[in-house]
Amino acid sequence: MNILQHETQPLEKWRDGVMTLLRVSAISRSAQLCIFEQFCDPGLGAPIHLHAVEEVLEVMEGEAEIHLSGETGTMRPNESIIIPAGARHGFRNIGSGILKVRATLAAPIFEATYDDRTELARRYVP
Length: 126
Description:
This protein is mainly beta. Helices cover 0% and strands 51% of the residues. The protein is globular.
């Protein structure tokens, strides 16, 4: 049995003003999912990028502007969006407090390709 103690997992700085908690992934012996939370300062979030797998993005706290395949919308707490595999997307905090989002990817390894080539590419493997 592999009970994960999330309160002992460290927050990681992914970029200025964006902290990430990697809750479930291949690192924790997941075979098919990657689940992580991000905490974004006002005006910040995730730049336009894509994943090879489907993603569900949920706003837990705050308000987010989401960009998906050329469309823009606003998400609030208890709202989710399904992002198809290969769809270009990104989000940013449009509120005055911290934006907390939870992302679930249909793969145990986080990988993203960013439109901005200066953005640090990320790939997490055990």
